[in-house]
């Protein structure tokens, strides 16, 4: 794994949509640039869920600054039975958590390969938040790509979404932008105001399907660049939400009065 140059994701002046004169820039496709050598600086967290899209995992690990296995996530990497070169590519720097899930044989195997072991017995935090705290203490502004965020038990999936929200508020969890990767989607949390998302649809990068999901509280959104754009559109669970919409421009803009989840489809290689 190698360090790469960060992309500009700071707020910039922009007046294309109502309600805000600033734009938060997002580039989820940058983490899918398998053959590129420049892009955002990011770390990878592997949670304790099966890694189903191996090509996606290998491509993301290729340019990561480093990766961390969250407890039993170390078993999930071993389960891939990678060849020698791919195993080196995906070798985590450290395994972090209370270590109540990872197999002892797996710990011994990776310890012999130089993987550090960080045991945190705190039962009031999850392995995911333990990893975020480790990254935040080491690299305050680095982005984070998380594998396995929404698989397995439903309560754990909701926990990951909760931590996606709380990471912006809890100083001990703060790092850069956080992206949850599933085998078919990338999920991240849009900020209040105007968000501009680069959305290259291709067989190598993104699919066309997106969603804008108001998890925490009701919001009013205005969009541009989608098949079904909306203006000053109230969205709330139990009334109406935007799912199965389609990208129609190279950039999608979403103005929102509250933080909302944005999901975008990953092209399957």
Low-confidence stretches: 1-20
Q: Tell me roughly what share of residues is in helical segments.
A: 10-25%
Strand order of the largest sheet: 6-5-4-3-7-8-9-16-11-14
What about the largest sheet? Answer: 10 strands, mixed
Rg: 18 Å
Distance between the termini: 21 Å
- Could you give the order of the helices and strands? EEEHEHHEHEHEHEEEEEEEEE
Averaged pLDDT: 88
Shape, principal axes of CA atoms: globular
The tally of helices reads 6
Q: What's the β-strand tally?
A: 16
- Secondary-structure-derived class: alpha/beta
Task: Assess the beta-strand content as a share of residues.
Answer: 25-35%
Describe the structure.
The chain has helices spanning 54-63, 73-79, 84-89, 104-111, 127-138, 154-166, and strands at residues 12-13, 22-26, 42-46, 66-70, 94-97, 116-119, 143-147, 178-181, 185-190, 193-198, 206-213, 219-224, 233-235, 242-246, 251-256, 260-266. With 269 residues, the protein is an alpha/beta fold. It has a 10-stranded mixed β-sheet with strand order 6-5-4-3-7-8-9-16-11-14, sandwiched between helices. It has a 6-stranded mixed β-sheet with strand order 1-2-10-15-12-13, with no helix packed on it.
């Amino acid at each position: 794994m190698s360090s790469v140059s960060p992309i500009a994701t700071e707020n910039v002046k922009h007046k294309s949509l109502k309600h805000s004169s600033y734009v938060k820039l997002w580039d989820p496709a940058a983490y899918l640039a398998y053959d590129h050598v420049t892009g955002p600086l990011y770390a990878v967290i592997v949670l304790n869920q099966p890694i189903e899209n191996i090509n996606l995992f290998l491509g993301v690990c290729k340019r990561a600054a480093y990766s961390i296995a969250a407890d039993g996530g170390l078993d999930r990497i071993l389960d891939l039975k990678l060849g020698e070169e791919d195993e080196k590519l995906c070798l985590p720097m450290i395994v972090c958590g209370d270590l109540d899930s990872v197999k002892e044989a797996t710990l011994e195997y990776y310890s012999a390969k130089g993987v550090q072991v960080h045991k945190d017995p705190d039962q009031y935090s999850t392995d995911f938040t333990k990893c975020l705290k480790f990254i935040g203490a080491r690299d305050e502004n680095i982005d984070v790509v998380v594998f396995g965020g929404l698989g397995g038990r439903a309560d754990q999936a909701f926990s990951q979404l909760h931590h996606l929200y709380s990471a912006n508020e809890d100083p001990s969890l703060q790092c850069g932008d956080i992206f949850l990767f599933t085998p078919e989607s990338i999920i991240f949390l849009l900020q209040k105001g105007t968000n501009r998302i680069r959305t290259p649809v291709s067989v190598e990068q993104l699919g066309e399907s997106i969603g804008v999901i108001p998890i925490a509280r009701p919001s009013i959104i205005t969009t541009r660049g989608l098949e079904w754009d909306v203006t000053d559109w109230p969205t709330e669970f139990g009334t109406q939400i935007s799912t199965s919409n389609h990208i129609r421009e190279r950039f999608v803009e979403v103005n929102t009065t509250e933080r909302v989840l944005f999901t975008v489809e990953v092209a399957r290689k």
